[in-house]
Amino acid sequence: MAVTLAAEDLNTKADDGKYAEGLAEERAVKSAYVLFFRDGKPFYVNYDGQTSTNAGPNNYLKVALTNADTQNGMNNVSDIKNSVLILKNYKGEYPNQILALINWTPTLAEYSLEDLRANTPLPGDNEKGYMMSNAVYVDAAGQVIYATPLTIANIGKTPEAAEANPVTIHVERVGAKVQLVNDENNRLFPVGKTVVDKDGNEIPVYAKILDWELYNDIDRSYLVKNIDAHATWTGDEFGFTNWNDRDWYRSYWATSLGAEKLNKSFTWEHTGMTPRVYVGENTNSWTEADDTRTKMIVKAQLVQSDGTTPVEVVNWYGKDYVTKDYLLNVVANTLNNTYYSSADASTFTGILPADLQCVARNANEEKAYQVYFQLSDNGDDKKWYKYENDKYSEITVAELNVALAKVEPALVYTSGMTYYWTDIKHLGKKGSDTEFGIVRNHVYNVNITKIEGYGTPVYEPTMDFIKPEKPVDVVTYVAAQINILSWRLVDHDYELN
Description:
Blueprint: E1 2-7, H1 8-11, H2 24-27, E2 32-38, E3 41-42, E4 60-62, E5 83-84, E6 97-102, H3 113-118, E7 124-125, E8 129-130, E9 132-134, E10 137-138, E11 144-145, E12 148-149, H4 159-164, E13 167-173, E14 176-180, E15 188-196, E16 202-215, E17 244-245, E18 250-251, E19 277-279, E20 295-303, E21 313-316, E22 319-322, H5 324-335, E23 339-341, E24 349-350, E25 356-360, E26 370-375, H6 377-380, E27 384-388, E28 391-395, H7 397-405, E29 410-412, E30 417-423, E31 443-453, E32 456-457, E33 476-485, E34 491-496
C-alpha cells in the first residue's frame, strides 16, 4: 500500500490567514512509523512466522525517508508522498485502520489503539523532532476518528497499483507552542505611576520585559488526541460551535491530562529572553478554588525612562518610597519610640535602620510577595527594651523578632524586580469553558500591548513561587493581544487587573 502524510497546517485553509507553516525544525521528520489496526486491535503486518523487528509479531512499519528538502537538509512531513509499504502475511484479511506516528520510536512488539491513546509522551524537541500523530475529529456519523479508515481499495498487489490509490493520513503535532512576540523595541512600557526619591524628585516608572515562563503548564500530551463526541461540547457554556471540522480532518478542543500534572511553580530568575516553549494540552476545568489555567508569567524590571536604571520601589502602609534603605529608615522612625537598645540599662537608644532587615515570606504562604521585618545582625548583638507605661522592660531578641513580624508587611521590588501574569486564551467566547486553554497544534502568540502598575514584587529572585498573586490594593494591569496559530491564528485583546 502507498501512504501520503499531510501536516494539518500545510495543506488545509492555508490561505485564509489563520494558519502558519511554522519553523523548519517543527516540520522535520526524523522517523516515521505507521501502525495498522482492525477495529482498534493490533493487525500484524510485519511478521512471517519466523522473523520480525521485535521479539514477536508487530503491527507497524517504518516509513522510508527521502530527504527531499535539500535546502534545509532534513525531511519535511509534507515530503512523504506515496511511500510504498509492504504488508507481509496478512492471510486474506485486511486492516481497516491506519495511524501515523512521527518522531516516535516503538519500544513494544505491538500496540492497540487504546494503548496509544493512553500513552503520554513529551511533545518533543529539536534533537528528537517534534512528535506528530493522526489528526482526530468526529465524522458525519458522530464517530470519533482516531485512526484513518482503510479499505481494500487502498491495498494494491503491486507498487504501481498501490501508488494509484494512496491513503492520505492527516497528522498534527502532539504539543502546542507558546511564545512572547514583543521584539526588543517593544518591551518598555510606562506603568502610569511616578515615585518620589529622597531628594524630592519625581521619577516616572517604566516596566521593561526581560523574560517569561509558564505556570500551570503540562509538559506532555496524550499520544493520540482524546476528544468528546457528545453534547457536553456544545452550547453557550462551551464557547464555540465549530470545535469539530471534519471537512478538514481537525478539531480545536481536546481532553488533557488531569490537574495533578500541572507545573505549579516558577522563579523570577532568567538568563535571557525565552524564544518559545512547547507544552502539552491543558483543557482542565477551572474554578476560583482550583485554578488550572495555563498562565504566562512575564518577568520585568521597573526602570527609569532610559530603560536601564532600576527603580527600587517599596510600599508600606499604602505609600510608595524608593529603595529598601529608605523603607527601613521610615519603619525605624515609626518604631523608635517603642523599642530601644541599651548596653547598661541606663542610656537608651531608639531602634535604628541598621538594626532592621527585610525578610522574604515563605513561597508556600499566601501573599508570598510581602516581606516582613526582623532584626539584622547588627540588631542581634544588642540588648533590647520595650518602652510602655512610662518604663523600660527588657525583652529578648526572639521576643522582639516576634513583635517585628507582626508589623505591617511591606512590598519591596528589589532592584525593580517584578512580574505580571496573564491566562492563555483559546478560541471560546468570554466567560465560556473554552475561553482559556492549550490545545495541540496551536501556536499561542502573546503580544503585550500595555502594562499599568508595578506588578507583583520580587524580593528574592531565586525563591520558588507556588502561586502567581496580585498585591492587595495595589494596581496591576496588563493588556495583551494573543494570536493563536494552528500552526492557527485567532486574535484576542484583553486586560487583566
